[in-house]
TrEMBL record:
Keyword Transferase: no
Segment forming the signal sequence: 1-19
Active site residues per record: 264
PROSITE patterns named among the record's database cross-references: POLYGALACTURONASE, PROKAR_LIPOPROTEIN
Enzyme class: hydrolase
Protein name: endo-polygalacturonase
Organism field: Artemisia annua (Sweet wormwood)
Gene Ontology terms, MF aspect: lyase activity; polygalacturonase activity
Keyword field: Cell wall, Cell wall biogenesis/degradation, Glycosidase, Hydrolase, Lyase, Secreted, Signal
Catalysed reactions, as listed in the record: (1,4-alpha-D-galacturonosyl)n+m + H2O = (1,4-alpha-D-galacturonosyl)n + (1,4-alpha-D-galacturonosyl)m
Length: 416
């Protein structure tokens, strides 16, 4: 191939410079070039789940998916694992394991729906679809992943306080993946969280549509944990919990052009629970739009924890009717009664809030509830303009304690 290709190039150059070839010769050389290149294009295999017994008729299709995956995973050619469009496939909890062929793409054109039988989750109540130990995986196609979450929500202790507080499955989890691409996928009605990136590196996610009702419990949209070099862009999240949550072990994360709401906003944390040491750094949230959310941009940690949340920037953000637009809480407590005071905390430092504007329905638009022992340090607020929603022109304020803060440009309301 190498010799043939370069011979064609050489002949073309000679014909051009010496004018020794006729028009017909030029056309013949082009034909030869196309033929040679066509014969040496990488072969693309398509592994269709229907060919392995998937019926899409309401019965369980898990075995067909596993058999198709094994075939695609072990292929030496560039391979597409295909879930056809205009069909609904039902799956029990399933794990797509690697390592696999590094030229593997998962094409979800149709709908994948979770089993409606809770007994199917007895071996693992925390996961539904898992992709693990994979390199260079691409998941795309414009299809839908439906977690069938309503059967779980009605039994949540947050909905029915007579029920025990137990976990439910995350709809889609990527764990121990590198060079991952997730594009143009819709995830809806998860059992608990929609999408988790866990212990993964070099992740690019774009054009995601993540949707659940505003009152669905614990349905975080995109959850990033223990992962490095993650970019999430051009996505819409409407849910009942955090639109994006970033927790321990995550660094070099970019969240850009996210539309969030309803939901609980964009959160770093919680960190430091049960006196743990947690670390989050180098986070950028840019060009987000938040509407009718409980929080805007939030960093929260438990008393008694340790570690740090540092080098975090929130920039170019628009908020509409957000209850708590900017909030940092080093004294987070998920109890009705007051938590006992402790003297260690996750250190918050080098936080930048820049070009944030919008409206709130709360009296307190900016809140820094920081630790006396480990105060929030090196906080910059630049060009922040927050007003009351609608015709409500009541007083609005910033509540700031134990924070070392500087400002640039107009900042309203302002910490006193």
């Amino acid at each position: 191939m190498y010799l043939h290709k370069h011979l064609v190039i050489l002949l073309t150059i000679l014909c051009s410079t010496l004018s020794c070839c006729s028009y017909k010769d030029h056309q013949n050389i082009k034909t030869i070039t196309r033929t040679l290149l066509a014969h040496h294009q990488p072969k693309l295999r398509r592994v269709n789940v229907d060919h392995y017994g998937a019926n899409a008729n309401g019965t369980d299709d898990s075995m067909a998916f596993i058999q198709a995956w094994d075939n695609a995973c072990n292929s030496s050619d560039a391979t597409e694992f295909v879930v056809p469009k205009n069909k609904v496939y039902h799956l029990k909890p399933i794990t797509f394991s690697g390592p696999c062929n590094p030229k593997l793409r998962v094409k979800v054109y149709g709908t994948i729906k979770a089993s409606s039988h809770k007994t199917d989750y007895e071996e693992d109540r925390r996961h539904w679809i898992v992709f693990e130990d994979l390199d260079n995986l691409v998941v795309e196609g414009g299809g839908t992943i439906n977690g069938n979450g309503r059967i779980w929500w009605i039994k949540s202790c947050k909905v029915d306080q007579t029920q025990p507080c137990i976990g439910a499955p995350t709809a889609v989890t990527f764990t121990n993946c590198t060079n991952l691409r997730v594009n143009n996928i819709r995830i809806k009605n998860p059992q608990q969280m929609h999408l988790t990136f866990h212990n993964s590196r070099n992740v690019r996610a774009s054009n995601l549509r993540i949707i659940a009702p505003a009152k669905s419990p614990n349905t975080d949209g995109i959850h990033i944990t223990g992962s490095q070099s993650v970019r999430v862009i051009n996505s819409i999240v409407k849910t009942g919990d955090d639109c994006v949550s970033i927790v321990d072990g995550s660094t070099n994360v970019v969240i850009r052009k996210i539309t969030c709401g309803p939901g609980h906003g964009i959160s770093i944390g919680s960190l430091g629970k049960n006196n743990s040491e947690d670390q989050v750094s180098n986070i950028l949230v840019d060009q987000a739009i938040l509407s009718n959310t409980t929080n805007g941009v939030r960093i929260k940690s438990w008393q008694g924890g340790s570690g740090y949340a540092r080098n975090i920037r929130f920039e170019n953000i628009i908020m509409h009717n957000v209850s708590n637009p900017i909030i940092v809480n080093q004294n987070y407590c998920d109890r009705k009664e007051k938590c006992p005071e402790q003297y260690s905390a996750v250190q918050m430092q080098n936080l930048v809030y820049r070009n944030i504007k919008g409206t709130t329905n709360s009296e307190v638009a900016i809140k820094f509830d920081c630790s006396q022992t480990f105060p929030c340090k090196a906080i910059l607020m630049e060009n922040i303009v927050l007003n009351r929603e609608g015709d409500d022109q009541g007083d609005m304020k910033a509540a700031c304690s134990n924070v070392m803060l500087s400002t640039l440009g107009k900042v309203t309301p302002r910490c006193e």
